[in-house]
């Protein structure tokens, strides 16, 4: 956990594990989703961004095999476990592990954490839910066995197959409750999650400025506050492709509620990636636009966020519960 956070106990993590969007960009501009071109994009992002992150999130398909040596060794390393493609049916989506990949392999590669993105909606079919629950429990057990941090990224999604897209949009009024119901389920100790990577309970495209004094802003802050009240361990926000200003608003709500940071990618670097295949312009735009945005959101985090060590799960509560009275005083491990 300390490797994934900065010296103040905040997670300022940057993701370069995105696959479909980058594949599509390269296919459109290069003529095919060329593996080496995708790897070069990931390497540029890692080179420019890792010195300004507490940790980097890499995928096993492109970023790790092509560019992992570019990660600043002083930073933490997270590696994705799931493949983006899922098994989809009328009752919902089943998350699948990347072929040939495992928690033990991620640990052997020297990573500090495992990230699992989980398609989840509480009203999915019972057989789908059973699969998802069992998968998270399995990953949690393996992370404990291999002594590596487990970061879960649950995403609410629309029913109706790939034509429905990946972002939940069926009923905006139900979205906050679905996000909270997701947190309610996976906060259970049997899943073994160390960090929650959460989506906003209010869609980025409609989120209001947290300082506009409106009733809508107050209600939005309450949703975020309820998330924090439910969790005894740290949580961070994902960007899910939100533009810079909506994501700044999301982070402000989250940090004021008690979030310990962010794990974001496209909000930081997607505008620069659109310069591809002009590599010089790509790199320049990361430096001139991406890095100032990183500085902005890190200032917000330092002002409003809560260090992960202050959460009950990491301030003695779980050790005392598991080891009994006096366990901390007698622990010699």
Summarize the structure in words.
The chain is of the alpha/beta class and 333 residues long. It has one domain: TIM Barrel (Alpha-Beta Barrel). Helices cover 43% and strands 16% of the residues. It has helices at 20-30, 35-49, 63-67, 103-108, 126-145, 175-186, 215-230, 244-257, 266-273, 279-304, 317-323, 327-330; strands spanning 11-15, 55-58, 76-80, 82-89, 92-97, 113-119, 149-155, 195-198, 235-238, 261-264. Strands 1-2-3-6-7-8-9-10 form an 8-stranded parallel β-barrel, surrounded by 4 helices. The protein has a two-stranded antiparallel ribbon with strand order 4-5. β2 (55-58), α3 and β3 form a beta-alpha-beta unit. The longest helix has 26 residues, at 279-304. The chain is globular and about 45 Å long. It starts with 10 loop residues before the first strand and ends with a helix.
Strand order of the largest sheet: 1-2-3-6-7-8-9-10
Gyration radius, rounded: 19 Å
CATH T-level fold name: TIM Barrel
| Overall pLDDT metric | 92
Order of helices and strands: EHHEHEEEHEHEHEHEHEHHHH
Q: Quick one: biggest sheet?
A: 8 strands, parallel, barrel
SS-based structural class?
alpha/beta
Let me know the CATH homologous superfamily.
Answer: Aldolase class I
Q: Which percent band covers the strand fraction? A: 15-25%
- Could you name the CATH class? Alpha Beta
Q: What CATH architecture would you give?
A: Alpha-Beta Barrel
Number of domains: 1
The 3D shape can be described as globular
The first-to-last residue Cα distance is: 17 Å
SS element count, helices: 12
Low-confidence stretches: 317-333
Helix content: 40-55%
State the total count of DSSP E strands: 10
Keywords: Lyase
Protein name: Tagatose 1,6-diphosphate aldolase
InterPro entries: Aldolase_TIM, DeoC/FbaB/LacD_aldolase, LacD_aldolase
Family: Belongs to the aldolase LacD family.
């Amino acid at each position: 956990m300390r490797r994934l956070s900065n010296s103040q106990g905040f997670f300022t993590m940057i993701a370069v594990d995105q696959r479909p969007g980058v594949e599509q960009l390269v296919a459109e501009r290069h003529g095919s989703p060329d593996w080496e071109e995708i790897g070069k994009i990931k390497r540029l992002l890692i080179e420019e961004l890792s010195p300004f992150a507490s940790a980097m999130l890499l995928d096993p398909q492109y970023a790790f095999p092509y560019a992992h040596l570019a990660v600043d060794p002083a930073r933490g390393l997270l590696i994705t476990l799931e493949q983006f493609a899922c098994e989809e049916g009328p009752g919902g989506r089943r998350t699948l592990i990347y072929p040939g990949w495992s928690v033990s392999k991620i640990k052997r590669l020297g990573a500090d954490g495992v990230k699992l993105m989980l398609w989840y909606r509480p009203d999915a079919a019972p057989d789908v839910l059973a699969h998802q629950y069992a998968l998270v429990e399995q990953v949690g057990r393996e992370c404990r066995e291999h002594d590596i941090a487990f970061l879960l990224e649950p995403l609410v999604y629309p029913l109706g197959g790939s034509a429905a897209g990946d972002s939940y949009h069926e009923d905006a009024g139900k979205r906050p409750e679905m996000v909270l119901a997701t947190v309610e389920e996976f906060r259970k100790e049997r899943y073994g999650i160390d960090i929650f990577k959460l989506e906003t309970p209010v869609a980025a495209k409609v989120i209001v400025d947290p300082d506009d004094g409106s009733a809508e802003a107050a209600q939005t802050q309450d949703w975020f506050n309820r998330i924090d009240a439910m969790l005894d361990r740290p949580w961070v926000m994902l960007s899910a492709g939100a533009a810079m200003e909506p994501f700044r608003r999301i982070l402000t709500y989250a940090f004021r509620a008690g979030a310990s940071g962010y794990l974001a990618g496209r909000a930081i670097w997607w505008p620069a990636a659109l310069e591809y295949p002009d590599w010089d312009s790509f790199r320049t735009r990361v430096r001139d636009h991406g890095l100032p945005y990183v500085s902005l959101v890190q200032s917000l985090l330092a002002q409003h966020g809560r260090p992960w060590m202050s959460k009950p799960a990491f301030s003695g509560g779980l050790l005392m519960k598991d080891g009994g009275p006096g366990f901390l005083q007698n622990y010699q491990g």
